[in-house]
Structures are given as structure tokens and as C-alpha cells.
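INFO batch 0412 | record 1 of 1 | parsing
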Amino acid sequence: MFDPTAQARIASTFVRRTATVKHFSKSPGSRCHDSDKDTPVTTPPPPPIGTVGWFDLTVPNAPAVRAFYERVTGWTATPLSMGDYDDYIMTATGTGAPVGGVCNARGQNAALPAVWLMYITVADLDASLAECEASGGRILSAPRNAGGPARFAVIEDPAGAPVALYDAGVRDPA
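INFO prediction complete | emitting C-alpha cells
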């Protein structure tokens, strides 16, 4: 079964807007601990509705696969501490923009097939999940927080292919 907690930490990297954030360190068995240093961070706004905004790959040996993609694509890996191991945020050559995550298949993720999971941006996660079920799909993981108002869930289409739906939680004022 899919472990959305680990994926939420990775997925939330593509949703931050210009903000001031604290540096975080992670120790085994604890939540993030903030340091005294605030850092302004500028990242792009959420991807447009209906577009793919993120990819995750969950594999048994993330360090080896991370190294493969660094060599083959030129991506750079930034470790993301998950306590007693690291997952990786992969960034594009030249721009440094995050493009995806390479994650370890641990715990509830141990049984996941080694496939790239894409995150499609939707306008209303709850409405999309209702439509998924009404259209013959199924929900693999309930909606989870992905940072701030953002949420995501993993579904399976009628053919059995998994995909994540992502809602930035940012609504245009009416």
C-alpha cells in the first residue's frame, strides 16, 4: 500500500510560493526541528490545472537509482532526510528547478512497483476523487496534506495505472 506521508514531504517541494522559511533538520523518530536562520525562498507557483507538476519514483535502492539518473540525465540530487535514511529531490541541470523525487521503498511503500508516479494538478481534489470513483477508478490513498493548503491523493484509473492528483488549495477570489 502507498505511504503518502513520505510522498507528501517530497511532493510539497513543487508547491511553495515566494516565502520565508526556516532551515530544518530531521533526526530519527522526530518531526522537523527549525533552526534560528530564516531564508527567503522563491519557487514557481503551482503548475497550471491539468498539467503534470511532479514525478516520484519509489525503488528498493534509492541511492543507486539516484546516481543512475544523475549520470544519465545530469540531474542533481538533494537529500531529504526521512529519519534513518534519505530520499532525494532531483533538480534540473542549469535551472536547479525541482523535477521529481527518488524515494526508498520502505515500510508501506515496500510493495510499490518501481514506476514513476506522476502528480496531475487539479482544481478541486474532492471533486476529482468523486469523479474518479464515479468513472470506474479507485482511490489508493486518501487526501493528505502536501504543505500549506495543498493536498494530494493517489488513485488508480480503470486500467489499473496509478497516478497522483494534486490540489494546491489556492483559489482565485470570485
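INFO post-check: Confidence is low (pLDDT under 50) at residues 1-42.
INFO record closed
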